[in-house]
Input
Amino acid sequence: MSPEEYKRIKEAEKAHLRRLKKLKDAVRRLEQKRRVSGAVADMATAASETLEAQQEMVDRLALETVRNEARLEWALEAAEGRAEAAEARARLDEEMQQIRARELVRRLRQQMAAGEAPASAEAAAPEAAPAGPETAAPETGADVPPLPEKTIGRMRKDR
Output
């Protein structure tokens, strides 16, 4: 082989190695681009899944909020209804008291007009007097035996 031919083969080999290096660089860049684009696609997928999960949670919270607001409104309406019913009962009780008082006054006037002395307010209108332990008269009926004069300790009334 002549030195010129050796130079030519050497130069051809160098050119071939340069082209091979360029191709390897191009392959390396393409693989890097593919990895980067894959990572971006994975990030986009993860982000969209996260957004979907967040939207689902927000929807669930919104639904729960609507349910709780409806329950609260229902409870408030029920409480208002109970308050209105209590007010109505109080008004009716006041009206019944006024009616009983008028009836008592009417009966007393009738008794006074007839010349009778009214025995007592309870006797004239027993339904107007409240029935409770504080207004109940002590029992002095015939079926309760009298208590002995001298005793040791307390005596029960029911004997």
About this structure: The radius of gyration is 53 Å. The chain has one domain: 3-124.
